Each structure stands twice: as C-alpha cells, then as structure tokens.
Amino acid sequence: MKNFIVLEGDMLVFDPQFAHRIVTPTAPAMMRATGHAKINGRRVCVMGDEKQVQVPATYVMPGHTPGTGMLTIMTLLPNQQAPLYRSRAGLILKGQEFIARFTPLVPAMSTTPTPVPDPPTPGIGKGRFITTQFLASVG
To answer: pTM score > 0.90 for this model?
Structure first.
C-alpha cells in the first residue's frame, strides 16, 4: 500500500479523547517542514519535524471548569516513516494514526465547594495527518 509524503502546511487532526479529558485544539494544527526536497513547491517533512508540533488546546471533563494545555506528537508509527533520504532523516508519511500527548498547562478545576485542580498528568491519544498532495508516495 502506498503512503503519501507529508508536506509543509499539511494538517493534523487529533482525536478528542485523551484519557479522561475531551480536548479541542484552539489553533490550526499544521506541519512545518525542514526537508530540502519539494513537491508542488512545498518542502517535505522529515523525521524530527513531528517533534516541533505544539498545538494549544482547551479541555473539559465532567464536574470541572475547562482547562488549557498543549497537544504534541509523541510517536510516529512505523507506517509513517520512510527510510533515510539524501543521507539525512527519513520522510514522514501519512500512514495511519500517530500517538499524541496532551499536557495540561492550566488545570481544569472541580466545581465542588472547595475546587480541586485536575492533576497535570499528560494524557495519551491519537491523531492523523491530512495530506494535500497525491503525486508522491512511498511503498
């Protein structure tokens, strides 16, 4: 099966469920690329570019006021990685779903008479790339 190469400006979609939290991005989630090669005038994403993804988000959970935090890519799956190209890093491919992390920065607070903050423990979820080019693929 062919996997399309992820490019600068391709979107990311995060599933809303991160452990006990429902997370909603508050800004567009887009890839930035550092690859030298270009497709349709846009740089290709290479391994390591996923570590630069930081998407602000809000979150809710039952019995709490909303909180805020940051979405990041924790790990790409093997089907989202192509071998090294041009003696640099491998290409990032659309693949299936990557492993994402949500880290609370301003905790949600319980609505009890004595508010208690949500523990700042990161939650694990999933996400995927939305590719916009269908010319270049690997596989």
So the answer is: yes
